[in-house]
Design a protein that fits this description.
about 350 residues, alpha+beta, Alpha-Beta Plaits, 2 domains, three-stranded mixed beta sheet, two-stranded antiparallel sheet, binds iron/sulfur cluster
């Protein structure tokens, strides 16, 4: 509800500021999905919580190794979220009558993504492949995508304080598009075939068939078929979906409708968002400027220190030179006086 309220407020604000002008994309009130879009079907009745999917995701995406190895299943004792080093995590749920049940968590690659609706610079894009991509080069770091996502997915990387970025599952799209992989790493690694990769339409058929053939094994619903307008990551479960941490109150309205548009809503509000988010962007920019200023101050300090050290060295050298000079003068004066005294003595001797 928080996300929906947030999106609704965005829509109301945008609509108000747009002074009733209809969005170009408003006509696109329903997005049927890209025909060849792929996705993944997760079958909770098959998952054994082995974390092989987590390990493979970490490997194929070349992420930092976690503190505890992937075969350490004690991590399942705590509910985890995806983070900058984990595009996916598996959580364990104790369900009455069913015991331990596991669910894999990652970006659901929504058909009409809330993250994209909330992003005024279009850093997120629904690709025809089915993936929701993220372009860090245009991201301004406002983190509205994190607030908007109904599944609490986007994480934030703070490794580089000057250019932080949003982190989430890519559906292995870049690896598949470049020919490095044919299926997502997690799907390949699953020893129980709890994950199936394929066209979303076909995954829905497989899911429906499993439910039809084993009605006692499955809840009669495919989570993601309609939730928030549908997702490309789909779920089957043997226990109620809310028992495995999935929000069953999201409704079927796609996120962009809350912003009074569809996939193109971003274009509608592009002229408004900078005003709405100006403060936030300003803060981000200030932070960045502060970081830059801090660096420049450090350089200036170093130069000043060097100059001061140089000045001290020079002064010391000059003092030494002055002291040397004084000593030389003194010595020369003494020498001259001694010679003068000697000459005087010699003169007096000649006279006597
Ligand atoms: S699950 Fe969240 S991050 Fe992923 S596409 Fe949907 S709204 Fe965006
Ligand atoms: S699809 Fe790729 S990026 Fe997403 S969880 Fe699976 S391995 Fe990780
Ligand atoms: S690899 Fe398969 S069985 Fe193991 S935790 Fe992941 S989804 Fe579940």
């Amino acid at each position: 509800m928080l996300r929906r309220t947030f999106l609704g407020l965005l829509g109301a604000t945008a609509a108000g500021l747009a002074a009733g002008k209809p969005a170009a994309a408003a006509a696109n009130t329903h997005f049927g999905g890209y025909p060849d879009a792929k996705g993944v079907l997760f079958d909770g009745t098959r998952c054994i919580g082995c974390r092989k999917c987590e390990g493979k995701c970490n490997e194929v995406n070349e992420l930092k190794a976690p503190e505890k190895p992937f075969d350490d299943l004690t991590v399942l004792d705590e509910k985890r979220r995806t983070n900058q080093y984990a595009y996916t995590v598996v959580n364990k749920y104790e369900v009455e009558g069913a015991g331990s049940v596991f669910r894999k968590i990652q970006c659901n690659h929504c058909m009409e993504p809330a993250c994209a609706s909330a992003c005024f610079v279009s850093a997120f894009k629904k690709e025809p492949s089915g993936a929701v991509s993220y372009n860090e080069s245009v991201c301004v770091g406002c983190r509205y995508c994190m607030v908007a996502c109904p599944f609490y997915v986007p994480a934030y990387s703070y490794d580089d304080p000057i250019t932080p970025k949003v982190i989430k599952c890519t559906l292995c799209d870049p690896l598949i598009a470049s020919g490095k992989r044919t299926i997502p790493g997690c799907v390949e690694a699953c020893p129980k075939e709890a994950l199936v990769y394929g066209k979303r339409d076909e995954l829905l058929k497989i899911a429906n068939e499993r439910i039809h053939r084993n009605p006692d094994r499955y809840v009669d619903h495919i989570y993601g078929e309609t939730e928030m307008g549908g997702t490309n990551w789909l779920y089957l479960s043997g226990v109620p979906f809310d028992e495995i941490g999935l929000d069953t109150h999201l409704g079927t309205t796609p996120a962009p409708k809350f912003t009074k548009g569809a996939l193109g809503a971003v274009a509608m509000v592009v002229g408004i968002w900078p005003v709405l988010l100006g403060g936030i962007y300003g803060v981000t920019k200030v932070t960045r400027n502060e970081a830059t200023k801090a660096r420049m101050d450090a350089v200036a300090d170093a130069i000043a220190t060097t100059k001061a050290e140089d000045a001290a060295t020079l002064k010391s050298a000059m003092d030494k030179a002055a002291a040397d000079k004084a000593a030389t003068v003194e010595r020369e004066v003494k020498k001259a006086l001694a010679e003068a005294a000697k000459a005087q003595e010699a003169a007096e001797g000649e006279e006597g």
